[in-house]
Amino acid sequence: MQNIEENKEGKVIAKSVATSIELQQEHILKLLFVLIWVLTFVHIVAEYYFLYWRLPWFDIVTHFLGGIWVGLAVIWFYYYSGYLRPPVFPGKNMVWTVLGLGLAIGLLWEGYEVAVWLLSGAGLPSPYMPDTVLDIIVDVAGVLVSAFLSQKMILKK
User: Which of 19, 26, 92, 144 is deepest in the core (most CB within 10 A)?
Assistant: First the structure.
């Protein structure tokens, strides 16, 4: 007797693959949980001690961690959650999918920052464009790190 099960579309898949997908899904969710708390703690400390203003490079740390978090969230949601399609292992094009969606989320975040600056009446800070470009580059670097590390974990299995 073969060890098989059906996915949401009724397609038969090997139980070991289904179990492996579930383990990968759980692993990514745990990483997302830990990383969002680390990012929250770093941000709270940075705000309390004015680290974003005292150490101009500190913003890079939070954007990089945020990029890793966004990349992992995209991987989990798009490939493992089952919300968009049955859970599957990411293929070779995963890096492009994660990069595109991660970049879109980074651009939306920067748009949110512009809205906050303008709606608060403070106006945009003078070095806004160079800082924004650097933020997006660092976001994308974090997204790519999460994509490559995830792909390495998948290939290792």
Answer: 144
